[in-house]
């Protein structure tokens, strides 16, 4: 006598189920908004914070950099290729792309001394740490003494 092997209930899958699954995957890709992020290295080198951000396919004119004492914002926008009536596209994968990122500095920086360069799709930002502000000493005076001073 052969032992009986019991199998778990395996759902029956029809070709229509497979087709429905493929259509769901196809439309999910179109409808899902994927966030564009760029690879970044952020480190301290001496008395400066340095950020290196990869922006392949962008030109310097496409990038907007704004630096504040406590953070910086990078925005990059690239337009798609221009439509032309004399072209018949067979594949068109280059589309308009945008990227935006805000990074907070661990310490305040001096925005007036920040330098940035863009070469071969790599944005490099060097932000010197701001000098520590010296406390201002305020001398206190007695309000009673001010009242008794003769007026000229």
Automatic annotation (TrEMBL):
The record's section on Pfam families has: HSP20
Q: Which CDD domains match?
A: ACD_sHsps-like (cd06464)
* Keywords tagged on the record: Stress response
Q: Which SUPFAM superfamilies match?
A: HSP20-like chaperones
Record domain SHSP: where = 31-143
Specify the domain of life of the species encoding this protein: Bacteria
UniProt cross-references to InterPro entries, sorted A to Z: A-crystallin/Hsp20_dom (IPR002068), HSP20-like_chaperone (IPR008978), Small_HSP (IPR031107)
Q: Which family does it belong to?
A: Belongs to the small heat shock protein (HSP20) family.
The name on file for this protein is Molecular chaperone (Small heat shock protein)
**Organism encoding this protein:** Jonquetella anthropi DSM 22815
Lineage, top ranks: Bacteria, Thermotogati, Synergistota, Synergistia, Synergistales
């Amino acid at each position: 006598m052969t032992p009986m092997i019991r199998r778990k209930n395996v759902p029956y899958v029809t070709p229509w189920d497979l087709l429905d699954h493929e259509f769901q995957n196809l439309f999910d890709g179109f409808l899902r908004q994927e966030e564009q992020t760029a690879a970044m290295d952020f480190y301290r080198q001496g008395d400066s914070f340095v950020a290196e951000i990869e922006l392949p396919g962008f030109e310097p004119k496409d990038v907007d950099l704004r630096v504040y004492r406590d953070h910086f914002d990078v925005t990059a926008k690239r337009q798609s290729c221009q439509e032309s009536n004399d072209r018949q596209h067979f594949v068109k994968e280059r589309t308009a792309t945008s990227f935006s990122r805000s990074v907070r500095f661990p310490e305040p920086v001096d925005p007036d001394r920040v330098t940035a360069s863009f070469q071969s799709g790599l944005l490099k930002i060097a932000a010197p740490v701001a000098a520590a502000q010296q406390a201002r000493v305020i001398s206190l005076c007695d309000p009673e003494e001010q009242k008794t001073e003769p007026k000229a």
